[in-house]
Amino acid sequence: MGKKQKQNQKVIRAPELPPEVPDEDIEISDEDVKFVAKNRAYAGFVSTLDTQSITKHVTRIANAKEDDLEELYERRSRKKPREDEEEKGIVVDRVDALPVKTLDGKLVYRTVKNDESSDKEDESDGDKGAFKLTKAERRAKLKKKKKEEKKQAKEVVPTEEVPQNSQVQVLAEVKADLSAEEVAENKKVRIAELGTELLADPESNIKSLKELLSFCKDADKDIAKMGLKSSLVVFRDIIPGYRIRLPTEKELEMKISKAVKKTRFFEATLLSSYKAYLQMVIPLQHRPEFSRVAIHCLCTLLEAHPHFNFRENLIPAVVKNLASDDDVVRKLCSTTIQSLFKDEGKHGGEATVEAVQLIAELVKIHDCHLHPDSIEVFLALSFDEDLARSEKMDDNKGKYKKNKKRKNADEQNQPAINDKKRLKQELLSKTREEVNADFKATSFAQDETERKRIQAQTLSAMFNTYFRILKHTVQLDRSQVNASSTGVSLPLLSSCLKGVGLFAHFIDLDFMSDLMKHLKILASGKSIGNSENLLTVSERIECCIVAFKVMRKNLDALNVDLQDFFIQLYNLILEYRPGRDEGEIFAEALKIMLCDDRQHDMQRAAAFIKRLASSSLCFGSAESMAALVTVKNLLQKNMKCRYMLENDVGGGSVSGSVAKYQPYSSDPHLSGALASVLWELNLLSKHYHPAIQTMASNISKINTASNQVYMPTVSPQQAYSELLLEREQFNLSCNTKKLSHKRKREPTLSGDDKPSSNVDEDGLRKKFADHFTVVHDIVENEKLRKELSLTTASLQLYQVYKKR
């Protein structure tokens, strides 16, 4: 027994490892079975082994099946930490822990993992490093490796397909983008092809017009805009110069030639396509992205073909946009309507009547709060003055015909009249009527009665708009007035006054008294029942100008006293400010009211001469020149006013009683200006502008003794515009040499009173710069105050409108 134990110990100490043979290749022979049956005592320890503890040690799970064991080994291999992670898990020093020597002769140190890693890993992986793999574990590991290799071989295809799928998606997206661009390019090319085909031969290719209109509804905005513009060009070129009338049912039943059939098909297709195009474009003007394109199409079609069908749909769409906030759209519509008024030969005046009536309704709907462009288009209207004269002739002819009929009736009662003469006269009248009817049918000229009707309707709608604006301005409520501003926002008043002054000779005489009454109220700057000034100085001066224009154009029929307007102008000269008010209107008033009249009342002329001479000291160069030209004209026309140039005791050399001079009088007749002297000319002769110097010196040299009356050669408007163009482009006359000689001749002063010869130019420049910056700030402040007053006035008007 001792020898056998020694032999067994020798075998244990130096074992020979059996070759690794898979379980499938192991074959158990009959001899082995007999040997185990004989020597059961040696193999008895196998029956006493604890299989559950062994399986727990190998599989960590008891009662596990063979199929499940492979999955457990796979999971264990996935959770197996790397070598660097195992090294990180060592916390206990190797000196402090005793190693374990395996059968292979390797030393294995027991390790303890960190708290962080122990929380994450299972309990089974904690003791793994302390045991050596057994033969069964090795076999399981080999099986596991083979299965993993098989799985990896199977998973190679899907892992490679992932980037392929992503690349396919990217390629699909790129192809989609490229295809969208290609589709857009193809659509553009197709639009161009259709347009060229239609322009080349419209009658043969009229069917492709519907395909062209289909691009106007495309989802792409650029393609839709291109379709709208291309269709516009096609319609503008192929629309005929006449109005299309579709054939009736009887005409369709008739037999016709191929040419007539082709023309009918062309006209019907064109008319239906044009209607569809307008139904598409008119709603697009309310969409922001298509508004300008749509309005451009409407305006172009109306301007090019105002005679064609569906004009009653185009004109309202264009007129409504006169109230648009977009300046581009409003200017485009106003220019289109002006061209419509100027080219009446295309439509015969019918479109003019429709547009003027629609503008009148637009002003009424918006309560006279529109941009001036909406009624400035009336200034482009042209009326035939001969039609008004022919109306009078027609009235006389009508009276003559009535008298002639009465005579004929009296002659019929007399039996002595010859029947043959009567029959000849009837035949002649019938033939004349037939010839006149044929001539009217064949001639392209419009009938005179039709022209009269159109002109009467146009004038009625236009003056209805003008009188509505004047009445609205006169009847402004106190709630609509902004107390912080000098005036109310009345945008249409200036354009209204220009139109009334231009077409005053067409106004019916029955309305003249009411018109002059309203102009007097507006010239005073006050409305009915309101004591506050509503209008600006320029607007009040313009009211005076319009009153004089109306009076002069209807001189034969009117007998109006214009003294009130002279009084208003006399007071407005003091209220005029060069930077705030319009100088052109001021110069026009001086020309029309003072220079154009051949003769003036002496007291009134002297009052205006004195006030203009005094005001020219405060005006700018252009306004001063216009005032001095007016003074010169008045002095040349009125000889007695020339005595104001003398400086006698008592003021002038006028014989008789002279009223005392009252410079602040509101009535020019009560000012007593003849008792004054024009001392302002002496100061104006030293003015900084050389032109004003020469004008003042020329006025002062007028001969008072001569009785010659001079006719004016230059009007105040011309003088104002010429001096305004120069804009201070002159050289100041300054003789530095004379000043230096005078300084040398002056007695020398001692001490601090002696002036310094060297002038501090930098200091002067700084002072002038500061001064001009202050002046600039003041001007900017005034402008901002004006804008603030206008905005507050508009807000108040909007609040009143909301309340209504």
- Regions with little confidence, pLDDT below 50 for 5+ residues: 1-14, 83-90, 116-131, 156-164, 481-488, 649-657, 730-757
Total beta strands: 2
Major sheet: arrangement of strands: 1-2
Helix content: 55-70%
Mean pLDDT: 76
Roughly what fraction of the amino acids lie in strands?
Answer: under 5%
Radius of gyration over all CA atoms, rounded: 55 Å
The CATH class of the domain at 184-385, by name, is: Mainly Alpha
Q: State the shape.
A: elongated
CATH architecture field of the domain at 184-385: Alpha Horseshoe
Distance between the termini: 131 Å
Q: Structural class, from secondary structure content?
A: mainly alpha
Treating each run of at least 4 consecutive H or I residues as one helix, how many helices?
Answer: 32
Summarize the topology.
Elements (H helix, E strand, L loop, with lengths): L1 H12 L16 H9 L5 H4 L3 H9 L6 H14 L3 H7 L10 E2 L5 E2 L6 H6 L14 H66 L7 H7 L6 H18 L10 H5 L4 H27 L6 H14 L6 H10 L6 H16 L7 H16 L7 H4 L8 H29 L5 H24 L5 H27 L18 H10 L9 H13 L12 H17 L9 H13 L7 H13 L6 H14 L5 H17 L42 H5 L5 H11 L15 H11 L9 H10 L15 H43 L1
Antiparallel strand pairs: 1-2
Helix pairs in contact: 8-9, 8-10, 9-10, 10-13, 12-13, 13-14, 13-15, 14-16, 16-20, 20-21, 20-22, 21-23, 22-23, 23-24, 23-25, 25-27, 25-30, 26-27, 27-29, 27-30
